Amino acid sequence: MLHSSAYILAIAIGFLSHWTYFIHGEHHMQAPLYGCILLASIPILYFLELKLHTHVPSQAIKGGLQIMAAYLLALFTSITVYRLFFHHLRHFTGPVGARVSKIWHTWYVRHSQNHLVLDRLYREYGTFVRTGPEEITIFDPEALWAMNAPASTCRRPDWYDLPAPLKSIANIRDVALHDQRRPVRNYESRITKSGEQLDEQLTAANGKPLNMHDYFSFYTSDVMSVLAFGKSFNNLQKQSFHPSVQGVRDFMGVFGTLTPIPWFVRLGSVILRRLNGWKSFIDFTKHHMNERIMKEPPEPDVSSYLIAASMEKGTLEEDRALLEGDALVLLIVGSDSMATTLINIVANLCRYPVYQHKIRREVATLSSISDFDAVLDLPILGSVFKETLRLWPPVPTGSGRIVPEGGLLIAGRYIPAGTKIFAPRYTIARMESCFEKANEFIPERWTIKPEMVKNRHGYSPWSIGRYSCVGQRLAMRNISYIIALLISKYDIEFAPYDDGTRVIRDMQDNFTANPGQLDLIFKLRSKEQITA
């Protein structure tokens, strides 16, 4: 076995690697490389041990592993002591485990309900909570403004590198490049066609209970595939998800747990089979985007304008990762956020059927439900929409930001530069300091009772500023149209065995929210009732 000096050297290298390397910069993108180096060092240490100090294989293996253990013990001891007692965030309160490692957070969100975990931390620790070694979660609407306001110089954190090498409007960390890719146009004809297909499915059910979690997801996935590639996945027609879509949905269930540790997602995508759904979906997106580049559809889609811009600049080949990334965002984030909002709005209309009647009277004043601008301007429908988004934002926790040079003063507390900060929308929108009767569903706060809104900065379901949801207007027009269509044609109610608790109780926070199951009955109204 190697002499004791080998252990001392391993311990010294462990401390030095922390203080000279790992303590600086970001390392999540190198996680697979570090894993390979760690694995490769085991046979190297074995052969050194076998060659220099023993000819017994079992002793050589033991010696090599002991040296590795000495290095890792020193490295993690140094990291732990530094983060607990010397780190510049040491004065912020929070769970001890969270101050040491984000693995603590991952354990507590193993059921993919990060929004509830953070809400409990707020009630235990208050406005500022250290939820990670380099991370502060701030439960104050001022934080939302500081992070996302148009003049904010905060930048996006490591989480946005997960789709690499693909880039998109949603994950670009370069500010200038992000601003170039923001414009999104309207695509009403594509939406109405998919809406008619959804309507046909509901009519065909003839009053039987339907799992609307799936049906709304079928619908939004079809719409987004048409907008991204000029062709539909036909989920509604088949009443099942395209295999690649199902694969990424399975991955998102894992993603909700692994969100706090992006380095593990990078590592896991190499070694874990359950994350293969993510890789296969990326390959699927690349394939269809290549097909889309080669063939322009009869009617322009989102990709039409992005491809045309790249061709005009002569950068089509260089922009392929961007084109593929933008399509990926449409198919995942766009689809999920719209489906989530549709599910929650319709659930609220079943809990409070009086709003079905009120919206129906509004819709009856329109010359056409396909007049998207007119539908979007309906005050009661809009208030139900806004109140649903307030209580159940499509992105419950929101994405973090990194504090710029010079630090930030938020809610009277100084946050050092380089700190990753979060401001959970789910909890902030339920604070009495922002909204009167904050946990109650009261759409009138957005119309005839404005005094119930105490601090408008607490309402940020689509975020604000340059990093606000680029597709929010498209989503609002799409969702408003579908709600108007359904309310005008159907009386909607919970299935006899569904009281609407599962959709809230079982909601997952997988970056985008994933509500629980919702089974509804759509009773077709008579022609006289529809035209009345």
From TrEMBL:
Heme binds at residue 469. Coiled coil: none annotated. GO terms for biological process: methylation. The keyword Iron applies. The chain crosses the membrane at residues 6-24, 31-48, 68-86. Its cofactor is heme. CDD domains: CYP67-like (cd11061). It comes from the Eukaryota. Keywords: Heme, Iron, Membrane, Metal-binding, Methyltransferase, Monooxygenase, Oxidoreductase, Transferase, Transmembrane, Transmembrane helix. GO terms for molecular function: heme binding; iron ion binding; methyltransferase activity; monooxygenase activity; oxidoreductase activity, acting on paired donors, with incorporation or reduction of molecular oxygen. Belongs to the cytochrome P450 family. This is Related to pisatin demethylase cytochrome P450. It comes from Phialocephala subalpina. The lineage of its organism: Eukaryota, Fungi, Dikarya, Ascomycota, Pezizomycotina.
